[in-house]
Amino acid sequence: MGIFGFFSKEKKETLDKGLEKSKSGIFEKISRAVVGKSSVDEEVLDELEEILISSDVGVDTTIKIIRRIEKRVAEDKYTSVEELDTILREETAALLEENNSQDVQNSFETDNLPKPYVLMVVGVNGVGKTTTIGKLAHNFQKNGKKVVLGAADTFRAAAVDQLKLWGERVGVDVIDHGMNTDPSSVAYDAVKVGVEKNADVIIIDTAGRLHTKVNLMKELGKIKRVMQKVLPEAPHEVMLVLDGSTGQNATIQAREFTKVTEINSLAITKLDGTAKGGVVIGISDEFKIPVKYIGIGEKMEDLQVFNKIEFVDSLFKKG
């Protein structure tokens, strides 16, 4: 199995199923590219380059992967097309391991984190931000952690209501002041309640309106400053949620958000409904910010801790 094989069988099956659309699209194209070929030559690699770019891996990351494969093929002198998927998996996984070595395994655990751990979540409307927060709350709670949520996306009534529904569903406290209220005031109260209730994790939902970048920067800055009145080191982490099904648009959003606030981690959602799963590889490589979670289905457990090696294995493994 080499470097692959860290996940439980059940998690791996869920990951394989969640990436089925992306995987089948890539392999149909690779199969067509190698028809009639016995070895991996320049023409095959040119085709593979096009396939990876069209799968939203991104141009720069694709070029890095192709160069690694070229080097491997040159060293091996002769490489059959049957070996291509194995080499593709191994070289892509190795690239991500080298570029982004931060360990985010077991990240539904908080034992080694400050208590309470304040996580501020950002992202534009429609990416699955509030749903991701609900699933995070569920998974932290399942690991025996006490969670408090703060509904600081006060720009949209639906966001506040949706977070309250998730709170009821999961069974965690949600602090809200309703719509069109000061988001920093909500964040302040959520942190205060979290400290008073001895919570392990406090998750703050925020509005994401990129078309007013200056206002967004000011708003996020104010939320941070106000939380720090209660807990000087808050927030410990700022997570950006991206919709994987939008492909390169997700990459553009990541670029824009990293300009307006410091982002420490990423969650990439909706990968089960798209053939654009390659975008996770490009984003992971380009931003050097850990992709911490991926969304591969509707169920609570379908928000998985991102494992670079297993992800690449599921995306590129034949059969």
TrEMBL record:
Its Gene Ontology biological processes? cell division; SRP-dependent cotranslational protein targeting to membrane
* InterPro entries xref list: AAA+_ATPase, P-loop_NTPase, Signal_recog_particl_SRP54_hlx, SR_rcpt_FtsY, SRP/SRP_N, SRP54_GTPase_dom, SRP54_N_sf
This enzyme catalyses: GTP + H2O = GDP + phosphate + H(+)
EC class (word): hydrolase
Q: Which molecular function GO terms apply here?
A: GTP binding; GTPase activity; signal recognition particle binding
Q: Which residues bind GTP?
A: 123-130, 205-209, 269-272
Q: Record keywords: Cell division included?
A: yes
Q: Name one Pfam family in it.
A: SRP54
- Kindly state which keywords UniProt assigns to this record, in alphabetical order: Cell cycle, Cell division, Cell membrane, Cytoplasm, GTP-binding, Hydrolase, Membrane, Nucleotide-binding, Receptor
| Enzyme Commission identifier(s) | 3.6.5.4
Q: So where does this one cross the membrane?
A: none
What SMART domains would the database entry show?
AAA, SRP54, SRP54_N
Annotated localization:
Cell membrane; Cytoplasm
A Gene Ontology cellular component where this protein is annotated is: cytoplasm
**Domain SRP54-type proteins GTP-binding span(s) in chain numbering:** 290-303
Entry membrane topology: Peripheral membrane protein
Q: Which domain of life is it from?
A: Bacteria
PANTHER family from the xrefs?
SIGNAL RECOGNITION PARTICLE RECEPTOR SUBUNIT ALPHA
Q: Under what name is this protein listed? A: Signal recognition particle receptor FtsY
Recorded source organism is Jiulongibacter sediminis
What's the gene?
ftsY
